[in-house]
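Give me the 3D structure for Trehalose 6-phosphate phosphatase.
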Amino acid sequence: MTKQGMVVPVPEAAVAVPPNSAPLFQYPPPRAAPGVAVRKKCLQMGAGAGRIGGWVESMRASSPTHAKAAAALAAGVEEERYAAWMVKHPSALAMFDQLVAASKGKQIVVFLDYDGTLSPIVDDPDAAYMSDTMRRAVRSVAKHFPTAIVSGRCRDKVFEFVKLAELYYAGSHGMDIKGPAKGSRHTKVPIHSNLCPCILSGHPKILISLCLSYVCGSQAKGGGVLFQPASQFLPMIEQVHDSLVEKTKCIPGAKVENNKFCVSVHFRCVDEKSWITLADMVKSVLKDYPKLKLTQGRMVFEVRPTIKWDKGKALEFLLESLGYADCTDVLPVYIGDDRTDEDAFKVLRKRGQGVGILVSKHPKDTCASYSLQEPAEVMEFLLRLVEWERLSKARPKW
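Predicted structure for Trehalose 6-phosphate phosphatase (398 residues):
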């Protein structure tokens, strides 16, 4: 029995996959292929170079170069796969009326990834600026709905890009959360939690309740929520960041980014021949830090604490803080483009309630029900959402 408000995805049985077609570009871990074992999401620090190499191979599959994508399109193979994939994950713009119909009598809460969703993917992560028109669209959304940016980036850095005080910001994959400035329409009770790993290993429901009731230290400036479950890892993260900067200097194009509660090693500008070498370097630094794990994003290695916290947990935490934990009168809408956003899509599916939208021009394995191709379509979707809300309020109530 599903909860009310669920947006039912198109049945998979309706998809006619072309015979002998190549597999979808996958989010790791990949499905088993002949002679290849299915790999875990995180690299185990004791794994050998063979596993590292296989993991990097899966990254090639999940992040094809423009040249490879163009070649596939020219051959017609990619186009065929994408058409089949779109049957299962139709455009959120094409299905807009169905989506908003599911929100009748419910509060929409909007969750947005940043890179690749609100801004284009660029070679230099420090230059991932969002357009002024996108900023206006997000501001308009926040006037009508509680809105959060959920990113792997450092929270302060995301705020510098977005510059909107009326939003919730969940940086470092949700390990650093702050709410809107005092006086904003959707501001709730201020929270400052700083919890130990033993608490974080508990049941998600118990964990979130503890997060909301355990107040430690001063309240967040301006009255917003402040939640940092991995503060004790900060010295360790700093050490690893410094070591990786030094270690990767010899790899042209590699960029190490300190995202406060995690470290990102970008290799978008690294020659493919050096990917395995770079992965080995990261592994060699982390061998002395068993409390940190290595995960994969879009053309990036992510070093994170081993606590059970991710974008999905951040989504649950924010819904709880807004008072919508077990409500049937809420419709969360999550839009993201990276494999780290899959944790949030899975939460929505588990709740049986909400809308998961993957931003991608290529077919990928995903738990999202709908899709958009690029940030321009995300902006169009957000503007349509605002206009729909405006018109619905203007309609006479009989």
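The first strand starts at residue 107 and ends at 112. Let me know if you want a second pass.
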